[in-house]
Amino acid sequence: MRVFSPKAVLFLHPFPVNKNIFKAQFEALERESIPYVAVDYPGFGEERNFPSEYTIQMLTDIIVSKISQLGVKGIIPVGVSMGGYIMFDLWRRYSHLIDGLVFSATRYEADTEEGKRGRLETIQRIKEEGLDFLIEFMLVAQTSPKTRTDEKKMLALECLMRQATPEGVINALKALADRPDNSDVLPTIDVPTVVIAGKDDEQITPPEVVKRIADGIKGAKFYQLPNSAHLPPFENPEEFNKILINFVKEIWG
After folding, report:
1. Is residue 1 domain-resident?
2. Is residue 201 part of a domain?
3. Is residue 2 in a domain?
4. For the chain, what is the domain count?
5. C-alpha dihedral over 14, 175, 113, 160, to 10 degrees?
6. Is residue 130 included in any domain, yes or no?
7. CA dist., res. 41 & res. 20, Å (int)
């Protein structure tokens, strides 16, 4: 967490990792002296488990409280997957804080009934078996063929996933299953917006799904990053950082 001014880039991580998925972005922003804040969700990374279930809206309120305590009054959220769902709620209820938006590997739609059932089945299996099966699946589903050839990168990703607690993962899955549809939010967004997809994301958020966010926001720019699937900032940090830093400089100078 590096905050030097009342404005900061806010990093919102995907499921089931933590804020350190953005390590390459932290390093790039520090070289450019751009302030940033990154948070872990309850039960992920350094954040302890929440004492009860929570919703995306509750998570948003917790995050806004944290950045307010730091004196941050203007943000450019960067959200990947689950982080994007939080961004929609940030815009819905805290748009006065937002100077720009960077959506990555996410969607605006709510879960289908089939999707909800799948999450509930996963929750039951975690209770019975633990997290190993989910981590094994995610390591393949979230990454591109190029990423999977990099043993060091794959080990780092597995380490991030193993820092999650079963309780944290279960509560996050419930929050994801219950999240609202955000189709009504898209036409209200009137700040500069970038939408980034991983070109090789076939299983979770294919590029055509991610692009629908850009199509619904006037003036939004859409990018597909090669050699990345569901984790563009981690898999192709060089290209992601170029887009992010140029975007931040266009807004804040």
Report:
1. no
2. yes
3. no
4. 1
5. 30
6. yes
7. 12
What phi, psi does 50 have (nearest 5°)? -75, 145
Q: What is the CATH number of the domain that holds 109?
A: 3.40.50.1820
Tell me the per-residue pLDDT of 172-188, one tens digit each, with 9 for 90 and over: 999 999 999 999 999 99
Burial class (CB in 10 A: 0-12, 13-18, 19+), 155: exposed
Quote the CA–CA distance of 108 and 211 in Å, as a whole number: 10
* CA–CA distance, 69 with 6 (Å, rounded to integer): 11
pLDDT (0 to 100) of residue 5: 78
In this prediction, residue 51 carries a pLDDT of 84
Confidence band of 97 (pLDDT split at 50, 70, 90): very high
pLDDT tens, position by position, 199-225:
999 999 999 999 999 999 999 999 999
Q: Which two tokens stand for residue 106?
A: 């996410």
| CB 200 within 8 Å of CB 173 | no
Say yes or no to pLDDT of 52 above 90.
no
Of 221, 122, 218, the C-alpha closest to 172 is: 122
| Cα–Cα distance, 179 to 56 (Å, whole number) | 6
pLDDT one-digit tens code per residue, 98-152: 999 999 999 999 999 999 999 999 999 999 999 999 999 999 999 999 999 999 9
H-type alpha helices, the chain: 23-31, 56-69, 82-94, 113-129, 132-141, 145-148, 151-161, 166-177, 207-216, 232-235, 237-252
By residue range, what is the domain housing residue 57? 7-252
Sorted by sequence, the CB contacts under 8 Å of residue 243 that are 6+ apart come out as 194, 196, 223
